[in-house]
Amino acid sequence: MSTWKELEDKIGTKPCEAVKKLYAYYGTGWTKWMYDLYDPKTGGFYYSNSARDYDEFFTDAESTCQALDMLQELGLFKSVNDDWARALPKEMRETCRKRIQDMQDPDDGYFYHPQWGKDTAKHHCRLGRDYAQCLSLLNMTGGKPLYKTATERMEETVANKDESAEKGAAFPEHLKSAEALKAYIDRIFIPNTSHGVGHILSSQAMLIKAAGLAEVCLEHMDTYQSAETGYWGEGKEHEYDKISGIIKLGGLYGVLGGRMKYMDKVIDSAIETVLSKSNPDNICLVFNSVGGLGTAVAHVRKTSDPTATDCSNIDVVMKKVYDKLPEMIDATIEKLDKFRYPDGSYSYLQGKSAENMQGVIVSKG
């Protein structure tokens, strides 16, 4: 772990002082709140306090996976080299693993929560997110799926290269052909916004790739990217929505092996949005602003050209980021305060948690 002196030497005095301010702002109260969401009976975490406190709600895979990911990102497992088998208690691993394995459907290979059933198949975001999170949790807990997964079934079908072959239950209708996928994207893309389409597609990135449609998806999405802002969708309105699209579509392009264009515009637009004084109506817009910038930076880092003088060079990008970092941290703290509670936790909406998430009821709000 870097010391403050090492960080200061790397990014400069003012940016380092800003990071210290952010550390102090978060404190440690939120960790107790998160620990109190853990349920030893299922080896999982609840979505919120109200989900925990009412019998009609249960723990879920996404909340559990995100809680464990957060603990890992904080460095709490560094002492065991991020080895999940050593980081998590045996009873927790076994309980969580069995619960996830029991959620897998033998007919299509997807995972369905008992509280929501197969209704989630109608909500492609929920279906795709649950699928990815359940596979991650099995990896964390040392388990394997009991049946062939949906992607394994899709990959086998695609590998046969028989266009006339029937595509079974693992294939949603929009992933059965290139034409179906392009029509689907056109249908879900709302003019001047991109969070929705990015969210829906990134949730299904593994499935799109398994269906052999990665190139089709990337080429079609490229047609929607603005050369003016780097965002998907025209104009500068709905800036929070557009940067949320960057974090989602950055994930999509990463999984599908694509490269985003207009990175100078993307970086400048992302910094501008983080600094925006516009009131965010949910906390994801605060996270996605910073996360969208981080996604763009990571994208440049992977493909950086050290001879370039524009934002295709990671050194140019990081100078821009560090120069604006103190202002961006101050702006972010001001927005986070709108969602903060006295115990150090944060709500999804200002003053309350969300009741619905990706098409299913998750709490009392």
Summarize the helices and strands and which ones pair or pack.
Elements: H1 4-11, H2 13-26, H3 29-35, E1 38-39, E2 44-45, H4 49-53, H5 61-73, H6 84-87, H7 90-103, H8 124-140, H9 150-159, H10 178-188, H11 195-203, H12 205-210, H13 214-222, H14 239-256, H15 263-274, H16 283-303, H17 314-336, E3 356-357, E4 360-361
Antiparallel strand pairs: 1-2, 3-4
Task: Please describe what this structure looks like.
- This protein is an all-alpha fold.
- 55% of the residues lie in helices and 2% in strands.
- A two-stranded antiparallel sheet has the order 1-2. Strands 3-4 form a two-stranded antiparallel ribbon.
- A hairpin with a 2-residue loop joins strand 3 and strand 4.
- Helix 1 packs across helix 2, helix 14 crosses helix 16 and helix 15 runs antiparallel to helix 16.
- It is globular.
- The model has no long low-confidence stretch (mean pLDDT 91).
Characteristics of this structure?
two-stranded antiparallel sheet; globular; about 375 residues; about 0% strand; mainly alpha
The strand order across the widest sheet is 1-2
The count of helical stretches stands at 17
Separation, N- and C-terminal Cα atoms: 38 Å
Structure classification: mainly alpha
The major pleated sheet works out as: 2 strands, antiparallel
Q: Average pLDDT value?
A: 91
Count the E strands.
4
Please state the CA-atom Rg, rounded to the nearest Å: 21 Å
Order of helices and strands: HHHEEHHHHHHHHHHHHHHEE
The share of residues in extended strands comes to under 5%
In one word, what is the shape?
globular
Unreliable stretches, pLDDT < 50, 5 or more residues?
A: none
The percent range for helix content is 55-70%
